[in-house]
Amino acid sequence: MWLLLVLLQAAALPAQLCEAPREAAAVRALSARLLGLAADPARDPDPSVYLALRLAGDHDLRGEERYLARLRDAFQHRYSRSLQAAGWPHAAPHGHPQQDAAAAEHSTSAEVEWPETGRLALYLLGLRATCPPPEPGPQRSLVTWLKYYLEEDWAGSRRHGHPLTSYYQYSLGVLALCVHRKRVREEVIRRLLGAEQHGRFGHAGGSTADTEAVAALAFACLERQRLVGARLAAELRAATHRARRRMVEAQGWDGFFGNVYSTPWAMQVFIATNTCRTQPAYGRAMAALLENLDAFTTAATMAQALPALHGRSYLDIASMRCWQEPDMLTPVGPEPPPEVPGNKTVWLVVECPEPRCPQRRLYDRPVPAPAGASLLDVLRAAAAQGPHNFTFDTQDTPQGPFLSRVLGLEAQQQKRSYWQLLTAPSTSLQMGVADYRPRDGETLILRLSQW
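Now predict its structure.
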């Protein structure tokens, strides 16, 4: 009987060809820290956090259930209300994506919000990772919304040559539909294939590794789930191979693909395509991540790193089975940052490109601040010191405060503009304003940029 149970357990779990690292204690500690952050009711729920908890080797099942309930409150109620307000009869179980998109065009602009392709895709991935999976009924309207968002996203390309949100979010949308085993129109897939073939994933001042990795995961999923014909499957397989080859060729001396934060996404491609054991680049990236675990300080960055650290990819969600999951993980509360005595001076520069700003450099002054101050603290100190009238605003997101306005100039997603954070002369920061702690004498540049 005992042997039969062991065999049943082995059959119920998906094959995990990419082993978790030997430093399991450090990875488990990172999971416990993420669980501690997830338990804070003051933080908005983030579906990527739930995915990281579900793909981990150890669990706090009751804690995960509570977090899922918060996610449902944030997403299900929101989208069911929106569908009713828009009067969509096509939210019925057998709606067709083309009909869905066409019917949505009759909604007023006030009823249709800016596409939330990425967040909705992550939430649908989270639902699929739930054990046992929820009843399909409530998910149908969410799938309809996601299909509509993909069409709305691409409508922007007819005017701008790219999705309204980003290729990263667009790829997440295709991946989520695939993991749910929902057929995706060939035109939708070929839009993404064309972007990969013509190198359109890049944006100003950032790495393309994460976007390219998510697109490759979507391609690999579509092929694996047999949701496309043989000819298109061969094209998807070739695109995944090209993306993986580019990652290997672009791997830095430090072992990272792009940077420390995009590396876990790239590693998921090797995991999803079962090449992690045969590709030395994967082993170097894993070693680099383990040496830099202290870089993952926010819930969003921890959630991005943990699936790869556990040897899992988002494609594993499609075959997840719950069988005696280890339920021994205990949350660890966040540690307060250490107090650093003394003061420092940070040189703060604000730049805006022509022709929007003929002056270009709008602010260029030293800002004294406490030695342990974050960049956000430095901005607050600049606003308080006067009489130079430095002003800024932030927007709260699941990833932490996002710099939205500086000196009255707003970063607008519709115009694909954002406030890029750099340390002089031109190195992009890979942390947010609340996480980065400048050094004494460092020059920090806030630059209004296009992506």
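DSSP finds 16 helices and eight strands in the chain.
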